Structure formats: C-alpha cells, structure tokens
Automatic annotation (TrEMBL):
Domain AAA+ ATPase: 191-319
The keyword Nuclease is assigned to this record: yes
EC number: 3.1.21.-
Gene3D superfamilies associated with the record: P-loop containing nucleotide triphosphate hydrolases (3.40.50.300)
Database matches in InterPro entries: AAA+_ATPase, nSTAND3, P-loop_NTPase, Restrct_endonuc_IV_Mrr
Keywords: Endonuclease, Hydrolase, Nuclease
EC supergroup of this enzyme: hydrolase
UniProt GO MF annotations: endonuclease activity; hydrolase activity
Organism expressing this protein natively: Sphingobacterium anhuiense
Name used for this protein in its record: Restriction endonuclease
Amino acid sequence: MQYNLEVLNDKEFELLSKDLLEKVLQTSLQNFKSGKDGGIDVRYSSNSCFNEIVIQAKAYTKSAYSDLKRVMRKEKENMDSLSPSPNRYILTTTFSLSPKQIDEIVSMMNPYIVSPQDVYGRERIESLISNEHEIEKKYYKLWLTSTNVLETILHNGQRAQSEFYESLILKKASLYVPTKNLHDAIDKLNENKFIIISGEPGVGKTTIAYILICDLLGKGYQLINIDDKISDALNLLSSNHDTKQVFFFDDFLGANINEILNPKNTENKILNFIRHIESSKNKFLILTSRTTILNQANDNYEHFAREKFDKRSKYELKLNHYTKLDKAKIIYNHLYFNNIPEDFKNNFFINKNYLKIIEHKNYFPRLIEFITNHNNFDIEYYNTVDEFIFKNLDNPSEIWKMAFERQLEDEDRFLLLSIFSFAQKSISHSRLEKAFINRYNYEIKQNNITKKVNAFNRSLKKILDSFIISIKTADGENEYQLLNPSIADFLINYLKDNNDERNRILNSILYIEQLTGYFDPLSKNKINLKNTFLESYYSTFLKLVNKLENRHHSFVILDILCCFDKFFRINLIKDSRPFDVYLQSLVESVPNSYVMSSKLITLIENIYKSYSKKTRDIVTLNWSTLMSLIIKNAYDSNDLAELANLHSLYSINLAEIIENENINPLLQNKISKLFEEYARDFQYIASDDDIIETYSNTGIDNTLTFLDEKLWDSYSVFFLDCGLSDYYDSFNHDYDIDTAHVLSEVIQHYEHNEDDYNIDAFIDQSPSISDEYKMIEELFER
C-alpha cells in the first residue's frame, strides 16, 4: 500500500522510523532532541560500543534529490567527528530512491553505511508500514491518507457535494493533531449512534467532525450532508442494514446558515431523525453547534425541552480540554506545513514565544491558523512579527478586520460581502456572479469606482482559500461559502458599525435573500434597520423588487411580501397598493407553486391585524386558493393546526371549507403523507422492546394485531395534532400501512444490533514522557 508520508512532520517521521527499525532490528532504540549528539536522531548503543548504530531520519517535502545529497555530505562530516565513530549508519527518508541513487549515498557515507540495505527510501518505508498493523494504527494520519483509504473516502464522499477532495484531505490530515477529544468523540458516536460536537467559535468542532467523517468514509460509509431540509435526509436514510451511511449536519440550528427557516417544525424533524438513526444499523449522525446556540435551543424550543434534550449530555462533546502539549503540536504543525519563510517562522522560536502562545488565555486553533499564516502579516500595519502575533492573541475579535480593510481591494470586498449577504451555507457560481455584477455596476455608477477587466474572476481567485472556499457540486458547478462562521460574525459586527457599507449592500440587492438574511428591525443577533432608515429606504426597495431575480416565482413573491410586512408595515398602512399588487400576484401564481406555509400563515395573520379592509378583502376573496397553498406546502401537523386559528380569526366557517371539493382531497392527501412520514419512525407508535416482547410471547398474528391497534391509536393522536378532530367524519381514513414489513424490520434490527464501525484504528501517539513542558521543549528544539 502507498502512504502519504508528507502528512507527517519531521518529528513524527523520526518516531515512525524508530518504531519501524525496532521491528527490523529486533531491539530497542534511543531517540534524541534535534541538534544534540552531532545530529543523531535515533541510535543503538551496546555495552561494547556507545554509538554502535546511528540512525538519521530525513523527511522532505517539496525538495529535490540534490537537497538530500547536500545534507548527506554534511552528515558524513558529522560522523567523522563523532566519538566514538558509529559501526553502522542507517538512513530513512521520504524520498523515492532509485538503485543508482542508493549506491551513490552508500558511497558518500563510506564506511558508515555498510550495505545498501541500510538505506530506507519511500518504497521500503511504505512496505514496512503495511506489514506492521500496530504501527499503521499508531500513525493514524498515514492510514487515513493511504492510497486505498483515500480512494474510498473520495468515492463515498462524492455524492455529498461536499469538500471531501484529495488536496483538502491531505492538508487537514497534515495539520490535524489527534487528541483525547477525538477518542471521546469516537466513544460517544459508537455508544449513541449520533454526536453533537459543541464549543465556542474556532475551537475545532468542524475539524473533529471532518476527521470522524473521513474515518467512516474510509471504512465504507457513504456521506450525506444535511442542510436545513431534514426531510430530504430522512428520505435518503436507507432501511437496508448493510448500507453504511453517515449523515453530517454542520452548525445545525443556525449560525453558518441564515437560520432554520421554520424552527418550530424543524426541531421536531431533527428529533425524529435522531430516533431513526438510533434505531438503524450502520447509520451515524454527526452534528456541530456553537455552545450558545445549543443552549438557546434547549431553553426556547418546546420539543427539545419535552425530550429533555438539554439533559442528554452524553451526546454532547465540549472542545475545551486541549492539553498544553496538544496546543504545542497544533502550532508546530502549522509552522512546519504552511511553507512559511524562515525569517517569519523564527519569531515563534525566539524567546520561546511558542510557549507564551500556548499559555495565552485566548489560545484557540482558528487563531493559531491565522497568526501562522505569513500572508496575514502586514508590514505597514505591524511594526514587528511579535506585535502581529500577540496583538491578535490579545484581541482575537480583530483577526479579520485588518485583513478585510487592508489586504482586500474594493472589488474583493464587494465579492466577499455579496457571498455574505445571501446568509446561506453556500451560493452557486452563477448566482454569485450575477449578484457581484449588480453590486459592481452600482458602485461604478454611484461611487465612481473605476471598472477593472475581469474583476469577478480576479477577486474570486484572491479571496479563495483565505476568506472563502469552493465546493464542486454533483452537477459540476462550483459553489462558494465563507471559510468559517467567524467571518460572518465579523461582517455582522462590522456592518452594525458601518452604516455606509450596510447601505451599499441594501441598495444593490439582486436576490430577495440578500435582504431577508442578516437584516432585521429588532433582532440583536442581526443587523438592525431603524425606522428612520426604513422610511427613507422604502422608495429604493420598491424599485429594487421590480428588478429582482426570480421575482415571478411564488416563493420569491411571498418573501417580498414578508419583507414589506417585516420592514415597512408602518409605510404600508399609509399606502398598501404596492403590497396589494404582490399579494394579488401570489394568489395568481398558485398552480404548481411552492411557498413556506408557516411564512404564509404569519403573513395572513398580520394582514388581519394591521392592514386595510381592501387588503383583507384580497385575502378573503381568494381564501380557498390561499388555504390550498398552505395545505399543499404544509411541513408537518403544526402547519395544518393553524388552519383552525386562521378561520377563527377571519370568521370563516372551517367546516364549509373542508367540504370544498378542491380542498377536501388536497387536505386528505396531505394528512396521509404527513402521517406516513410520522409512522416511518415506529418509535412514536411502539417501542422495539414492546414489539419484540409481544412477538416472543404471542406470535406473529397477535403481534400484527398489536401493531395495527398501536398504529390507529397513534393516528388518532396525530389527527388531533392537526387540529381537525372535530371534522374526523369528513375524511376517508383507510390507510394501508404494511405492519408485516415493520415487524420484519424490527426483528432484523433486534438480531443485528451491532454496527460495523469500530475504533480499532486509534491509538495515542504521545511519547512516553511525563513532563509536559519537557515534551514541548523537545518538540520545538531546532
């Protein structure tokens, strides 16, 4: 098997060489701090000879054979001056060496290399690793990036339309430091089938999730990414126990994306999905969340509270327990792998600055990533590299401000703010380009910006991998998203304090999402728009909405109406004609239309409370049409339950509407589909234990009867949740649920309750030295 030895830093390669050669030589070896004992990395000393065998490990990345030759000439001088002289010299290197090159090295090191067999190039190193399973497990990064495993990861991650591609996997594996957090995460995932990785921004939640996913992909699991549409993921959940799947919901409950658009319903969907995962074989769910957002969900979401979600701490992993040695390894890896100029790198070693960084109260991995990137060091802004390092450590909230203001040109900022303004997890290349061009043309016309050739592509190239990342979708199109959520946090706060920049975004929107995402008249977590500003912005908004992309689509029309209602209700009371025009457009666009029912319900409620009789008349005259729209797009029983409230509010007879020949079949079909989705999670209806106990005690026929009874009991409760219990006789309730298939699945799961995933590949790589500071000193010894 081939291994990517380049994911190991020089110290890790030395330890790997020691472990491999101990197996080959069948003896224990000593390793030394760098630069000590004439440059010896590893040696064997017998009673008769102090330096009987000297071993040097040479890890090279982006170097040529000529570099190795130059180093070996220096090694010959070191061995000549070493006392006592070694009887044998062994070289290990990451270079792939030809027989001719091996002979040349043997000749150069005469008489110390006694045989060509004492030169271990890449191929021999890889062969030794593949034959030593314990060593392969110990150096987890090598296993993860080995040819066979990497190909499996790429294959199984491809359908997820995610960022699991080779160069990124190798980069993340190189920088990653296995810690106790990873072991805890694996234990919890195996124990509970799902894990919520929570923590503060920048602490490494997504990184650990990423490594867990890579490990599962490498073991044959298929990755399915979840956005805010939990129902889509539920449809992709395979009932086949042999189908291995891992579902990933990054920053669930919000943060990375605008917000979960219908939290009242989505929280129930998440809990429903978790139950499915718990009762399925070879299925895992990985979620990440900021601690503050998770706490808000536990405090405010009814279903979370009902499920005692906040008490189920066994599913939550908090990433606040990095040891000093973990922190040191993270710094060292960034310095080693990031191709940093020596004069910049030296500043981390002078006066043991690395130790000051490790012990700094504001240490967190994302900040280390920032300060070890020499491109972030602006010589005109910082007097010294020391000032750059510790000023950002002292004020971590400022890490993006300097780069945004000083390193980016106008066009780069326009592009970055265009991506940000959508408030979505990712944005397609075509939509982003259109939004940027619209912003660019506005700036050229209103602010005298000089137009540059190919501005979009030039700026895209500049901010890629520094502020944004690119993802290739299944259809081959690129999508873009912010590098991490802290950039969104920075931009929100930046725009809160910068009205001019805020207004330039609002005056150049091309998509309604650019207004509905991060702007709000009241929310503290978003960018507030005061009434005085909204009054002046109203006329601009009216002009902009007439030029919006997709403005004739029903879901966009509804979003426009919600913007009218959310931002300009005071203005609309004076003149509701623009609002009425779009409301009329909505009811005329109903055939095959999609809207979010909860939004439409809220809008209809607000129209009754705050709008003129003329506007309310549009609603009542088109009542059946609007009710059909709500029913058709109902997300779950909560949406249907709102029908009774709406009819009561407008004093319209719900019984007559239900009897409508168009409404009745539509409502019956929706109830049927929602209950079938509900019934897919049989844990709502009867526990596996109850089903198995009934089956064991009474046999198959009685169990099927038991399931039928439980099913109809649950249906009655579900119908009550829909708010339609008074109209039970108006519907046909003849549903065909295959209880025999349900029983078969429960029995099969009961007989095969162990997943194929295991934690065999993970072993602590820490050296066996008790003094942590000594270990750190040795790591940074040059």
